[in-house]
């Protein structure tokens, strides 16, 4: 059944709790990120993204809270074998789309983890293959400073799931901290100046989908 589970994918690390979705596409998903109301600030430094932040708990009445599971833990999960990722997105009119990728991995290195991802679903975004993870605390990288959250930025982004949360969808450069499109953006769906209402990222072993 769907719910909270205690997992220990790597015996060198302590076990931790995750939420498992056993319903979507026959189940087997672990939720690694959730955005829905702006209650958690995602404009954090590298060490926060490495360890994770927010509230992973699931409330029967309110659903999932906002959180990032943590690059260390996500890396432990993806090292178990071939992994796919599902991005579920919702706009402010209640429309929903998804993007699904296979061969998703995170290699936690110093100073930044590297992500590999290959697209297989719809609402495709340009490749983020083998890009370093950047956060607003990295003074040498303008993209991570301007875009409001940690991500694998590529000139600077075509997708920004961890960007700033703007209520209502449309926003302008005058509302943005640095005058840039720093919202929860998925350009191929809504463009640069529309911040999504909700995004949820899930991963599972690739063989589970077959």
Automatic annotation (TrEMBL):
PROSITE patterns: FIBRINOGEN_C_1, FIBRINOGEN_C_2. GO terms for molecular function: extracellular matrix structural constituent; protein-macromolecule adaptor activity. The keyword Cytoplasm does not apply. CDD domains: FReD. One of its GO terms (biological process) is fibrinolysis. GO terms for cellular component: fibrinogen complex. It comes from the Eukaryota. Residues 1-207 form the Fibrinogen C-terminal domain. It is found in: Secreted. Keywords: Disulfide bond, Glycoprotein, Secreted. It holds the Pfam family Fibrinogen_C. PANTHER family: FIBRINOGEN ALPHA CHAIN, FIBRINOGEN C-TERMINAL DOMAIN-CONTAINING PROTEIN. This is Fibrinogen beta chain. It comes from Hucho hucho (huchen).
